[in-house]
Amino acid sequence: MSNFLPRSRSNSASGNRPGPCPLLLRSGVLVVAAVLLCAPPLAAVAKEAGRSEAASAPQAGTGWISGGVGDESREEMRKVAADYDLHLVFSDQRGSYLAEIPFTVTRLAPGKRQEIISAVSDGPLLYLKLPPGTYEVAARIDGTWQTQRIQAGAAGSSRRLSFVSRAH
Question: pLDDT tens digits for 7-29?
Fold first, then answer.
C-alpha cells in the first residue's frame, strides 16, 4: 500500500487510534514551506509599495518615488524621472550617495502652511509630483534639518535640489 493513501480507521476494541493521514501531513508541510519561501519577496513588495506614495495627509496631485541604491535601481529611477517635476538628491560632500533620509514637503500659502508629505527616502534619489505652488522641502541629514524653498508645478519643467551632508 502506498504511503500517499489515507489510513483506514479501525473500530477495534483496543482503542488504538490511527495517526494522522500522511498525505495531510505532507500537504501541510508543503503549504508551510511554500509560505516561508514566498514571505521575503512578498514583504519586499509590501515595503516598496509602502515607500512610494506613503504620505501623511496626502493632497490631490502629489506623489513620490524614491530609490537609486545600486546601478539597476538608479537606471529604473532615471526611466521615470520625466513623470516627476521635483528631483532631490541626497549625498555627502565627496559626492557619495546617502539613503534612508527623512524628508517633509510643506505647501506654503499666504498665512498658511500645510505639510503634505512626511516620509523616509529609501535611496539617494527622490522624485516628487507637486501641484503648482510654493513649497518648503526639508531633509534630515546628520541629525540636522536642511530646508529649501521652491516654486514647483510649472507645466513641462522640472527642478532639481541637492541636500548635502555637512559632516566632514
Answer: 223 333 444 444 555 554 454 44
Please write down the HEC assignment for all residues of the chain: CCCCCCCCCCCCCCCCCCCCCHHHHHHHHHHHHHHHHHHHHHHHHHHHHHHCCCCCCCCCCCEEEEECCCHHHHHHHHHHHHHCCEEEEEECCCCCECCCEEEEEEEEECCEEEEEEEEEECCCEEEEECCCEEEEEEEEECCEEEEEEEEECCCCCCEEEEEECCCC
Ramachandran class of 139: left when φ > 0, alpha when ψ lies in -120 to 50, beta otherwise: beta
Assigned superfamily of 54-164: Carboxypeptidase-like, regulatory domain (2.60.40.1120)
Cell of 118: 512626511
Lookup result for grid cell 536642511: 146
**0.85 cut: is pTM over it?**
no
Asked whether the beta carbons of 166 and 94 are under 8 A apart, the reply is no
Position 24: which residue type?
L
